[in-house]
């Protein structure tokens, strides 16, 4: 039987009229749906011009752009499949062309394959590692050429990278754990230029990827200290903190937004 998990009630979704990111430009990968959409809307509400990438969901991406523009912000959507290195690099260059600079890269686009370790096909290994590891690596590399002092690289990992292990999660956990190595090293390499690199590890967040009415939702919610799923806006609030002045002295960090998963 499928049981719907409780989702924590959303509170503040934007910055109460304060626009701490005014004048900044952000690129959010996978900004058409789910957590990426919430991040794009939140950074725009905080004043940033936002470029967002999508793979197939052009209509949804354009809706996000319209929503930001209706609220008086600037946004631009670009198709960039994470599996396509040239497209990933072009999306970074496109954001700079469009808005004149790049201050914040959010590596959000990601996919999951959950299956017993021994059943995972080579195609799945390539697809997940290219999307969840190679693309963030290449995007960070392309962005680093443009990020000014105060620039931010924020990647979306998973509680499965460090905090909890589930049977069936070997490939996904491997990909997300790789971002820890990337983030910590970027913090060191780019720190002298005043650029920070951090990871946000969501727990169960109600999206298409992990719906709060899915088969394992009640089990996942039950493993959190709060006994509930979170929302994309919960992750977006932490990304906004890292992107803003509050993130000035945070780098190389992994921050859990997981309702106390395995606390
Ligand atoms: P969704 O499946 O709801 O949304 C995924 C987004 O990424 C979409 O915008 C999608 O674009 C984009 N995307 C997927 N594959 C590609 C690709 N190959 N190239 C470009 N864009 C792509 O996922 P979530 O919002 O739930 O997840 C966002 C991030 O958070 C992921 O990295 C995920 O691993 C991580 N995460 C999520 C958790 C959860 O419980 N939801 C928990 C822990 C981590 P399009 O619409 O065009 O397909």
UniProtKB/TrEMBL annotation:
GO molecular function: oxidoreductase activity, acting on the CH-OH group of donors, NAD or NADP as acceptor
Species: Streptomyces auratus AGR0001
SUPFAM superfamilies according to UniProt: NAD(P)-binding Rossmann-fold domains
Domain Ketoreductase: 24-208
InterPro entries given in the database record: KR_dom, NAD(P)-bd_dom_sf, SDR_fam
Pfam families the UniProt entry points to: adh_short_C2 (PF13561)
Family recorded in the similarity comment: Belongs to the short-chain dehydrogenases/reductases (SDR) family.
The entry's keywords: Oxidoreductase
SMART domains: PKS_KR
Name the UniProt record assigns to this protein: SDR family oxidoreductase
The organism's place on the tree of life at top rank: Bacteria
């Amino acid at each position: 039987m499928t049981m719907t998990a409780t989702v924590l009630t959303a509170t503040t979704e934007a910055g109460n009229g304060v626009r701490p990111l005014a004048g900044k430009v952000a690129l959010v990968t996978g900004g058409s749906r789910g957590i990426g959409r919430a991040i794009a809307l939140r950074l725009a509400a905080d004043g940033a011009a936002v470029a967002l990438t999508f793979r197939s969901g052009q209509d949804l991406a354009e809706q996000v752009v319209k929503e930001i523009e209706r609220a008086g912000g600037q946004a631009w959507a670009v198709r960039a499949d994470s599996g396509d290195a040239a497209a990933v690099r072009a999306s970074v260059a496109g954001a700079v062309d469009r808005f004149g600079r790049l201050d914040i890269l959010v590596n959000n686009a990601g996919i999951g394959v959950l299956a017993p370790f021994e059943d995972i096909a080579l195609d799945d290994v390539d697809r997940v590692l290219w999307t969840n590891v190679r693309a963030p690596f290449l995007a960070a590399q392309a962005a680093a050429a443009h990020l000014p002092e105060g620039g931010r690289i924020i990647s979306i990992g998973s509680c499965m990278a460090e905090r909890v292990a589930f049977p069936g999660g070997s490939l996904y956990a491997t990909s997300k754990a790789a971002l820890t190595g990337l983030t910590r090293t970027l913090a060191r390499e780019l720190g002298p230029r005043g650029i920070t690199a951090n990871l946000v590890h969501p727990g169960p967040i109600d999206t298409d990827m992990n719906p709060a009415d899915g088969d394992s939702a009640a089990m996942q919610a039950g493993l959190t200290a709060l006994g509930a799923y979170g929302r994309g806006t919960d992750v977006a609030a932490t990304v906004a903190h890292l992107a803003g002045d509050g993130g000035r002295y945070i780098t190389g960090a992994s921050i859990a937004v997981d309702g106390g998963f395995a606390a």
